[in-house]
Amino acid sequence: MKQKIHPNKQWFIDSRFGMFIHFGLYSSIGRGEWVRSSELMTIEAYQPYFDSFNPRAFDAEQWAKAASEAGMKYIILTAKHHDGFCLYDSKYTDYKITNTPFGRDLVAEYLEAARKYNLKVGLYFSLIDWYHPDFPKYADRHHPMRGNEAYRDEDIDWENYLTFMHNQVEELVTQYGELDIMWFDFSYDDMSGEKWDAEKLMNMVSQHQPNIVIDNRLETSGEGFGSIVDAEPTSYAGDYISPEHIIPPYPIKDVNGNLVPWELCTSINNSWGYDPTDCSYKSAKFIIRKLVECISKNGNILLNIPPDGTGKFNTQSLEVLSEIGDWMSLNGDAIYENGPAIGLEKPEWGYYTQKDDQTIYAHIFDGPLGVLPLPGLASSQITSVKRVMDNSVVKISDSWTALAFPDTTFVELHNNHATEALADDIDMVLEIKLK
Ligand code: H79
User: Where does the chain cross the membrane (predicted)?
Assistant: First the structure.
């Protein structure tokens, strides 16, 4: 099935698994990246965290290495979140990391390390800025000063904000080498599309970075997919849909029936920015199975790992990432460059994914009683079946009862039709080669 993506951006779909990193002043507070908004904090109340910002354990290589070893192919860092604090040396604001005790351009160090580990590199950039005086406050739905009487009659210069915001984006796309992804966040109410002067912004970005992959949040965030599914998308519709904490129930198609790329963004626990009280870490098994589900529906997973206030990934995150990496190093063939298995229904024991016309993968979550059925695949279509983890041959069953189901091949995961535990309790993968 045709995929709606420019060939220069195909790498994005093939990658399937990336790392998201939310890091900023809020990481040292530990109550999430929305803390200024959820606690209605003034800039002054937030200032001590700027004045003392010095993540002593920050090491860009720890982040990049952990991502690479977990089998992630790209990485995206919050260059600036809604609080307006820049992790890079922007010349358009003093509210930046080089003016804190830390004093270094963290974005530059991050990009260098990520490229060294052969990761595609991305930056997250907040369209919203709660620090800038010309961003709406009193009547805005999310601003920390919403409903604050001091701002009832605020006089803001929106054009000035747009110039500032565009300038900051231009710095990122001109001062830091080739970027692979720009992750804008987010649009809401009337704050969307041309309100951001989005066509001009996109023209500027693509002039400097013609192959950069863009999310769809200049236009939308959730309430619909945006014009990316239309016959004629806007210039700022983006390259993919960005569902947040939600896995679409089926592949997403545009009006012409082409598959539209999407990327689930979610976190390893329930927080984007570090929160020491949030101990609900997802297991490696859970994440791998959800990744397989996303791929079977043509999606990626962008998994957020929140560095703590000292700048490092904590032990819980590292353990999960390392376990994911162990599995990916054996089974990556069934992840990268995979997509929905065309014409095959979801089997009861797990998922099918497909790499090319000759190669299907069976991701087995629930082991069979006796032999395993491969529904939708007749034995006449199949040339070989192997375990991906060790390349061992899996025998096609010649059981006489199997003959009653001509559209299904049965394979012997265990000898003599025995029922046993799966060799891999996360996802036992078979490679099925077709004629
Ligand atoms: O960067 C992460 C979030 O901070 C940002 N996008 C991801 C990638 C984001 N998440 N949700 N939103 C933006 C939309 C706003 C949701 C809200 Fe709420 C629901 C605002 C108020 C209620 C979540 C819950 C944030 C504060 C409370």
Answer: none
Tell me how far apart the alpha carbons of residues 338 and 258 are, in angstroms, rounded to a whole number. Answer: 17
Query: Which has the minimum average pLDDT: 24-33, 86-95, 416-425?
Result: 416-425
- Give the Cα-Cα-Cα angle 218, 98, 308 (nearest 5 degrees): 75
Q: Are 355 and 397 in contact (CB under 8 A)?
A: no
Query: What's the CATH number for 350-434?
Result: 2.60.40.1180
Average pLDDT of the chain is 96
Cα of 193 from ligand 1 centre, angstroms: 19
User: How far, in Å, are 74, 196, 382, 402 from residue 174 at the CA level?
Assistant: 20, 20, 51, 62
Domain boundaries, the chain: 7-334, 350-434
400 has a pLDDT exceeding 90: no
Average pLDDT over residues 294-312: 98
| Residue 288: CB atoms within 10 Å | 23
> Separation of 33 CA from ligand 1 center, angstroms?
9
Which atom of ligand 1 sits closest to the CA of residue 265?
A: 8
User: Rounded to a whole number, what is the distance in angstroms from the first to the last CA of the chain?
Assistant: 19
38 lines ligand 1 (CB under 6 A): yes
Query: pTM for this one?
Result: 0.97
Pick the CATH number of 7-334 from 3.40.980.10, 3.20.20.80, 3.40.718.10, 3.90.226.10: 3.20.20.80
Q: For the CA atoms of 347, 349, 353, 358, what is the dihedral angle to 10 degrees?
A: -80
C-beta 76 within 6 A of ligand 1: no
User: Other C-beta atoms within 10 Å of 161: how many?
Assistant: 17
- Domain 7-334 and domain 350-434 have a common topology: no
Tell me if 33 CB under 6 Å of ligand 1.
yes
